C-alpha cells in the first residue's frame, strides 16, 4: 500500500478504537496528537500556535521512559481513546473547548516520568517520591507536577486569560490525580450514585464524569480488537514481573497479581476485565448509551477470549 493510502487509513481511524496503534512510530504519534487538537479546532479557539504545541509534545515525549508499559505509546493510546470518546460520544455538545483541551492534555501527560514501579513500591521502598507526597498518590502527584512544569515552560496556554489558564491547569491536575487506581472504587461509586439523574449543568456531575472518562481511557486497551490489545498485556506483565523481581530481591512485599510464579495473561485479564472494566464501562453507558457498541462489545469479546484461554490452561494442568 502506498504511504499516501496508509496515511489516509490512519486519518480515518483516528477516531476509532480499531486504529493500528503498533504500526505508528513516535513522530507519527506526535503528529496525530497535534491533529486531535486541530480536528477539535482547539488551536484556533484557544489560540495555541502550532510551534508551541510541537515543543510541548516533544518535551512530553522526552520525559516518558522506555518502560515496557508506561511509555509514550501508552500516553498516545490513552489520548487517542479520549479523542474517540470526544468524537463518538459528541462530547463537544456537553463540554466547553477549555474542558476538552484539559481532557486531551491530561491524557497526554498523565504518566509523565513514570519509573515503571508503582505507588505500592514507592511507598514500601520509602522512595523520594513517596516521601515528597507523604505516600498520597506519589506517582500521580509527580505526573501532575511534571505536566504543570512543562506547560509553564512552553507556555502552551499563554493566549488565554489568567483565570482561564488557572482553570485549565487545575482541571489537568485534577484529571491526572483521578487516574490513581487506588481511588477507583471511590470515583466509580460517586459516578454510579449520580448516573441515573445525571445533569450536565451540575458542575459536580461534570467533574465526576470527566474523572470517569480519563480513568476509562487509561485502562482501555481491552476495548481495542484483541489482536491489538493482547500485546499490551505482555508489556504490562513484563513491567509487573520486573517490579516483583526487584521487590523479592530487596525483601519488600510483592503483590500476587504481579508475581511471575502466579500470574498468567489469561487469569490476569479475566480478573481485570470482569471486576474493573465491565462494571466501569457499563456504568458509563447510563450517561452515554453508545459506549455499548463502541467499546463494551470489544470488552466482552476480550473476556470470552481470555476465559477460553484460562479454561484451556486449567484443562491442560489437570
Ligand atoms: N491486569 C490488568 N491491569 C491493567 C490493565 N490496564 C491497566 N491496568 C492497571 O491499571 C493501571 C492504570 O493506571 P496507570 O495510570 O498506571 O496506567 C495500570 O498501572 C495497571 O496496573 C489491563 O489490561 N490488565
Ligand atoms: Zn496510564
From TrEMBL:
Annotated metabolic or biological route of this protein: Purine metabolism; 3',5'-cyclic GMP degradation; GMP from 3',5'-cyclic GMP: step 1/1
Record-linked InterPro entries: HD/PDEase_dom, PDEase, PDEase_catalytic_dom, PDEase_catalytic_dom_sf, PDEase_CS
GO molecular function, one term: metal ion binding
Listed EC numbers: 3.1.4.35
Binding site for AMP: 70-74, 111, 218, 269
Keywords per UniProt: cGMP, Hydrolase, Metal-binding
Tagged with keyword Metal-binding: yes
Residues binding Zn(2+) 2: 111
Superkingdom per UniProt: Eukaryota
Single GO BP term: signal transduction
Record: active site: 70 (proton donor)
Enzyme class label: hydrolase
Record's protein name: High affinity cGMP-specific 3',5'-cyclic phosphodiesterase 9A
Organism: Tigriopus californicus (Marine copepod)
Top-level taxonomy: Eukaryota, Metazoa, Ecdysozoa, Arthropoda, Crustacea
Amino acid at each position: 500500500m502506498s504511504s499516501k493510502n496508509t496515511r489516509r487509513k490512519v486519518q480515518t481511524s483516528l477516531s476509532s478504537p480499531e486504529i493500528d496503534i503498533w504500526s505508528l512510530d513516535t513522530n507519527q504519534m506526535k503528529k496525530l496528537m497535534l491533529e486531535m487538537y486541530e480536528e477539535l479546532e482547539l488551536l484556533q479557539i484557544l489560540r495555541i500556535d502550532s510551534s508551541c504545541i510541537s515543543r510541548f509534545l516533544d518535551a512530553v515525549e522526552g520525559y516518558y521512559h522506555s518502560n515496557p508499559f508506561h511509555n509514550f505509546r501508552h500516553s498516545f493510546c490513552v489520548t487517542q481513546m479520549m479523542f474517540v470518546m470526544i468524537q463518538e460520544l459528541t462530547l463537544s455538545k456537553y463540554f466547553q473547548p477549555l474542558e476538552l483541551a484539559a481532557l486531551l492534555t491530561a491524557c497526554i501527560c498523565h504518566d509523565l516520568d513514570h519509573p515503571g514501579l508503582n505507588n505500592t513500591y514507592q511507598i514500601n521502598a520509602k522512595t523520594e517520591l513517596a516521601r515528597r507526597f507523604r505516600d498520597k498518590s506519589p506517582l500521580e502527584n509527580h505526573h501532575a507536577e511534571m505536566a504543570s512544569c512543562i506547560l509553564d515552560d512552553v507556555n502552551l496556554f499563554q493566549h488565554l486569560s489568567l483565570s482561564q489558564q488557572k482553570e485549565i491547569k487545575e482541571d489537568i491536575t485534577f484529571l491526572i490525580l483521578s487516574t490513581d487506581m487506588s481511588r477507583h472504587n471511590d470515583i466509580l461509586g460517586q459516578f454510579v450514585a449520580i448516573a441515573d439523574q445525571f445533569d450536565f449543568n451540575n458542575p459536580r456531575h461534570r467533574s465526576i464524569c470527566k474523572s470517569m472518562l480519563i480513568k476509562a481511557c487509561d485502562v482501555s486497551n481491552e476495548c481495542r480488537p484483541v489482536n491489538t490489545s493482547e500485546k499490551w498485556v505482555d508489556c504490562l506483565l513484563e513491567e509487573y514481573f520486573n517490579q516483583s523481581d526487584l521487590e523479592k530481591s530487596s525483601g519488600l512485599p510483592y503483590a500476587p497479581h504481579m508475581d511471575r510464579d502466579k500470574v498468567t495473561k489469561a487469569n490476569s485479564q479475566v480478573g481485570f476485565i470482569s471486576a474493573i472494566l465491565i462494571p466501569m464501562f457499563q456504568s458509563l453507558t447510563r450517561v452515554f448509551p453508545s459506549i455499548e457498541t463502541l467499546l463494551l462489545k470489544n470488552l466482552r469479546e476480550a473476556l470470552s477470549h481470555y476465559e477460553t484461554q484460562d479454561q484451556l490452561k486449567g484443562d491442560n494442568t489437570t
